[in-house]
Write a structure and sequence with these properties.
With 246 residues, this protein is mainly β. Helix content is 12%, strand content 35%. The chain has an 8-stranded antiparallel β-sheet, with no helix packed on it. The model has no long low-confidence stretch (mean pLDDT 86).
Length: 246
């Protein structure tokens, strides 16, 4: 499909913010960079920003260890993260599930000044993550390929975790801060050590097509008052806030 034909079928596609307007392929367009200033980042010290553009398809408190996927379908933190100590950080915490549609900006960024010491790559399926699929496939996010990224937030003395979930046409998730590639065909989970320090708004990586990022925060954080299910958010806008739970 050409980019011109794609635009006929997707009113969401907006290239006015792109750094360049001519693309060699659909893949080149999917992974496009934005021009400087297209995504202002909220710099307030108490604010954890959205790591990506996306639709908030689920958000709220984590009930013990359970998160909401769709009506009648929940899933378990431990199955999502495949790491018991990490899942324990978010018991009764807060979460937001952000779905990137095919036409959206596909790069994701640091939600706060943070350090990254390791990531966990979990190979898996590549189910589509559109509403018809996550409304009928149990444990979808726990079955798909995903990369778990614990971020140690500077000054807040807390850890927020991003879970980048792969999807159809996204055979691997690209991370800027590690040298090794990530492939959905890898066998078994792998923990990859790294030494990265990034500022709020710095690019962390990209998807090669629309997908999902799940943001996990501990109990003493809360969703920002502007966040609700069905909302479209942009990278750099407030997503969560440090403080007493509400």
């Amino acid at each position: 499909m050409s980019i011109a034909a794609w635009r006929l079928f997707s009113r969401e596609l907006d290239l006015s913010e792109a750094r360049k307007t001519s693309f060699a392929s659909l893949h080149d367009c999917f992974t496009r960079e934005l021009r400087d200033g297209a995504r202002p980042v909220d710099t307030r010290a108490s604010v954890i920003t959205s790591p990506c553009d996306g639709v908030v398809v689920a958000c709220g408190p984590i009930r013990d260890n359970m998160l909401f996927q769709a009506k009648g379908i929940d899933y378990d933190l431990h199955e999502l993260l495949d790491n018991e100590s990490w899942s324990g950080l978010y018991r009764n915490g807060r979460y937001a599930t952000l779905r990137l549609t095919a036409a959206m900006y596909h790069r994701f960024h640091a939600p706060y000044n943070c350090s990254i010491r390791q990531v966990r790559h979990i190979a898996g399926d590549l189910w589509n993550v559109n509403p018809p699929t996550f409304e009928r496939v149990p444990l979808l996010y726990c079955r798909n390929e995903r990369v778990v990224m614990p971020l140690q937030l500077e000054s807040l003395n807390t850890t927020v975790t991003l879970v980048a979930v792969g999807a159809v046409l996204v055979g691997s998730i690209r991370l800027d801060f590690i040298d090794s590639g990530l492939n959905a065909r890898d066998i078994g989970p792998a923990t990859i050590a790294c030494e990265a320090s990034v500022a709020k708004g710095d690019q962390l990586g990209h998807f090669q097509h629309g997908s999902t990022i799940i943001v996990l925060a501990p109990e003493h954080c809360r969703l920002h008052e502007t966040i609700y299910c069905g909302q479209v958010v942009r990278m750099g806008q407030p997503l969560m806030q440090a403080g007493a739970p509400v």
